[in-house]
Amino acid sequence: MKHYIGATSPMRAQFEPKAGYQAEHFSWAFEAGVGTITLNRPERKNPLTFDSYGELRDLFRALNYATDVKAIVVTGAGGNFCSGGDVHEIIGPLTRMTMPELLEFTRMTGDLVKAIRHCPQPIVGAIDGVCAGAGAMIALACDLRYGSPATKTAFLFTRVGLAGADMGACALLPRVIGQGRASELLFTGRAMTAQEGQAWGFFNALHDSDALLAAATAVARDLAEGPSFAHGMTKTMLSQEWSMTIDQAIEAEAQAQAICMQTEDFKRAYEAFSAKRKPAFQGD
Predict the structure, then answer these.
(1) Which of 27, 54, 136, 165 could form a disulfide with 38 if both were Cys (CB 3.0 to 4.6 A apart)?
(2) Kind of pairing between the strands at 152-154 and 191-193
């Protein structure tokens, strides 16, 4: 969670917006408080490379300080989300690496998921078509996920001779769809259909492919207009309470809510309610 840093604050230079960010290995757009990341190698179904892994990790880390960015959409170009690590640019080179090099790679991919989960903004996935391997993990790391009837999500690590335990899959997936369903997908590597994904809670909703990005962006814009400090607190507590007892969670939420009650947004909400108008949240 974070407060908006106003233009007159002496700290403003340390919390610059990402409106002008120029991405090198994917597309970035910023409008009305929403940043949109588009994986854009459509001719190959948007696979990841060593460079795109690193740039995505660094961008999500930097978004911790971009107080103008209130919500984020992650999507793919050309009717697909992401086919995972590029077979020729990643998988091939990995077979020739030493153990220390391999560990640096697997830690880097895990750092991307950590950066997404630690990013205080709500992250909305617009997931169409192929969503496989590391792409499935990026989707899983999002806070909200929207798919299309054509979406097929596969944690296919065992298909290439690897464990289903990759980038936090064994921790995150059971929490979203349940232990038994996650075990099946991680052992077999089979694709989860869009209908299964919606029924199991992986997708919040399904939309036709041509309406998917607009629907996900509309959700992100609604979130961006909300109390961003409180949204960040919600995301923090959703993550931290996994390892808490019920009593610990109740106490942690008491403290978190008391902090939120000190914000100007809380006062704005009360004043707007009293005046019978919609509150204009500012994130402070």
Answers:
(1) 27
(2) antiparallel
